[in-house]
Write a structure and sequence with these properties.
The chain is of the alpha+beta class. It contains five helices and four strands, in the order αααααββββ. The protein has helices spanning 2-18, 24-36, 40-44, 52-63, 67-73; strands at 76-88, 91-100, 113-122, 125-129. Strands 1-2-3-4 form a four-stranded antiparallel beta sheet, with helices on one face. The termini are far apart.
């Protein structure tokens, strides 16, 4: 019984110190994964309060795409460049690479697009700032 109580206490301390795993890299990865899957409900969890309207605009644009445009858009895959995460107080930037993957899973070639996500903390959680024309 004491071991279970001690283990539970250790878990609570670790989670409170790490913020349940929320850091700029994790928030950026979860946002990009949601965008890659066109899951705008999930993506909304990772964008700042001020960015919700921009995300809604992106969703409306996606909803108005033709079938061919959606298929082309579905080929986009995102890869976060691990070494390019900069944190400064309550703001951060995460550099990622976007590459196009063909239907058989191979790279479509060409230079991958390098993008930068800006993040801030809101209510102790890292959130992506979406600005109009941010590439999504």
């Amino acid at each position: 019984m004491k071991q279970i109580l001690l283990f539970s206490l250790i878990i609570v301390v670790v989670l409170s110190v790490t913020g349940c795993g929320n850091n700029p890299k994790t928030a950026a990865r979860q946002f990009l994964t949601a965008m890659e899957q066109h899951n705008f409900v999930s993506a909304a969890k990772y964008v700042s309060k001020d960015s919700q309207e921009t995300l809604e605009y992106i969703k409306e644009r996606f909803d108005s795409m033709t079938t061919v445009e959606r298929q082309d858009n579905a080929k986009k895959k995102y890869k976060i460049t691990e070494t390019e995460i900069e944190v400064s107080g309550e703001s951060a930037t995460v550099t990622y690479q976007e590459s196009t993957i063909t239907t058989n899973g191979s790279s479509a070639g060409g230079q991958p697009y390098t993008g930068v996500l800006k993040l801030i903390t809101e209510n102790s959680e890292w959130k992506v700032i979406l600005e109009p024309g941010s590439g999504f």
